[in-house]
């Protein structure tokens, strides 16, 4: 497993806006989408290219196109939905799968309530979208669900991560590459990332 921390100045600036408790819901949603778009740019650097010839207004040019690679974006409901639009702005042809999980407040274990993926999931590069990786339980379960459906290539994009979650993923899914904007110090007694940015889902959708 590789963990890539995206330190681009634009990403780090926007992350500060998300951390600020005074950032309102509208701006928070917009910034999550903007960060997702920037993360998509970084996470797709390894897409292979073919060379083709196109006719320009002034002649012919050899140019590059993505080599038929199929992508599937997989938001983990519900917070992951906030990242989808930003991803689709760059790759509008990608399919969107959905995984519905919630963390049991007593056991802190993930519970599945919904999973819908494209029928050709085994032929696609899957990118899981989940703003926060705290204990890693939800992220690990999401990766396992995709593998159960036949997915062979999986990456994970999260805006913030904590060491316990990364350690769990490294142990259970060493083949999943992770892209994050920052790794915070740890978790509080309720398994929230500290200092973090609060509950991403509540701040995106205005719920408590």
Any overview of this molecule?
The structure is a single chain. Helix 1 runs antiparallel to helix 2 and helix 2 crosses helix 3 (81-90). Strands 1, 4, 5, 6, 7, 8, 9, 10 and 11 form a nine-stranded mixed sheet that branches. A two-stranded antiparallel sheet has the order 2-3. The radius of gyration is 18 Å and the shape is globular. It is built from six helices and 13 strands. The chain has helices at residues 9-19, 25-43, 81-90, 137-148, 163-172, 200-205, and strands at residues 3-5, 49-56, 59-66, 71-77, 95-96, 98-103, 110-116, 125-129, 132-133, 153-161, 177-183, 186-187, 193-194. It has 208 residues and is α/β, with parallel strands linked by helices. The protein starts with a strand and ends with a helix.
Question: What is the compact description of this entry?
Answer:
The protein has helices at 9-19, 25-43, 81-90, 137-148, 163-172, 200-205; strands at residues 3-5, 49-56, 59-66, 71-77, 95-96, 98-103, 110-116, 125-129, 132-133, 153-161, 177-183, 186-187, 193-194.
